[in-house]
Amino acid sequence: MRRGAWWTSCTSPPGQSGLLGGLFFIGYFLFQVPAGSFAERRSIKSLMFWSLIAWGVLAALQGVVTTYWLLLVVRFLLGVVEAVVLPAMLVFLSHWFSKAERGRADTFLILGNPVTLLWMSVVSGYLVAALGYQWMFIIEGLPAVAWAFVFRALVRDRPRDADWLSAEERDAVEERLAEEQRALPPPHGIREVMTSWNAIVLSVQYLFWSVGVYGLVFWLPSIVQQLTGRGIGSVGLLSAVRYAAAVVVMVVASAMSDRLHLRGVFVWPFLLVAAASFAGSYFARGNSFVLSFVLLIVAAAAMYAPYGPYFATIPELFPAADAAPATGMINAVGGLGGFVGTYIVGVLGGADSAAPLAFLAACLLVAALLMFAVRRPRGEADPAPAQRPVRSPSARGVPAQVTGRRPPVG
Q1: 91: domain CATH number?
Q2: How many domains does the chain have?
């Protein structure tokens, strides 16, 4: 098979394969803060439209290129394009949802990751078995181009641009969001945000968390294949189980976080569970496939569970103008964690060794402990459940619940 088909199909050493898997995150790192700042000031709809087109073309090119170094370039550019997505979409949701429901809103955005991986793990495995790696990338990349046009047709940047709302409904949503902004400190600018205590702590914390997430995402299919000796189609099916578990836990955790108006306690306990599960899988490896595999599923579900509450925390710590670059910075440093996770797991032996599991466990333990260093704004505390404010149209998240019409926000 040609070198550019996909690095895991080649006989390249784990370190080289890890570099191909991790280079994506270098491009991802460099453009996070600019993407967040641009999204706050300009049109997210236009930004996402062009990013989706570029992503689809680059993803398909992974099945076309024929040399290792050209594949490195494609992976880097793919990271650059994808750097736009999460900060821009989190900013977009902060323009529509109040903090009473932002945890769930963020979760449903991030659910796109495990839900897609849930069925794509199965589909990709069988596409590879039937057509080869090249056609798998081409087939899976091109739908993003079509979705770009759907997204542009359905989405509006802010409630005031939504022609399916009445003037009163638009004003109600905008006023609720403005009221929350007035309760936050005044904006300080990108330089002060990037040197602030909370931005630094959350960035380092997210780096260690991402080491665990992406180290597992990239290498789990190989680990499962090594443990079971099964074909790639069956491996894809087994690997998809972790994403099904993650979806359930993410929805429950975000709903409870919004209901109780608590964030941190729905982050660090899950990360501790993930660390313990990796450690348990390390000791069980070689003795019991079932136990080791179940623990990896628990680790995956626990790592995904806190995403909604975690990202809902950021606009509660920073005003809107600062929250956008803060989100970009945190996600950028997390992208480096993705590089570290994929590369070092490869260096430690990839699927052929149990050492990566111990490494991932240690990183997640550090991520859990760092959550205790986050400082809430002075004088602010999470309200008790009985003190939760009455939910406005934006707090319910979808103005259609007021109008009886379904808004075209995709």
Answers
A1: 1.20.1250.20
A2: 1
Burial of 278 (0-12, 13-18, 19+ CB in 10 A): buried
Query: What is the reported pTM?
Result: 0.73
Place of tokens 């608590």: 262
Domain-located, residue 358: yes
**Residue 215 CB coordination number (10 Å):** 30
Residue 266: DSSP 8-state: G
Which H/E stretch holds residue 314? helix 307-317
Return the pLDDT at 400: 37
Tokens of 189: 């600018």
3-state secondary structure (DSSP) of residue 23:
helix
Answer whether residue 382 is part of any domain. no
Intra-chain end-to-end CA distance of the chain, in Å: 39
Nearest partner of 202 among 38, 34, 375, judged by Cα: 375
Cα–Cα distance between 316 and 223 in angstroms, integer?
A: 39
Separation of alpha carbons 257 and 311, rounded Å: 12
Task: Decide: 124 and 41 in contact? Cβ < 8 Å.
Answer: no
Amino acid in the structure at residue 5: A
pLDDT category of residue 302 using cuts at 50, 70 and 90 = very high
Check: CB of residue 370 under 8 Å from CB of residue 205.
yes
H or E segment at 76?
A: helix 68-82
Cα–Cα distance, 341 to 359 (Å, whole number): 9
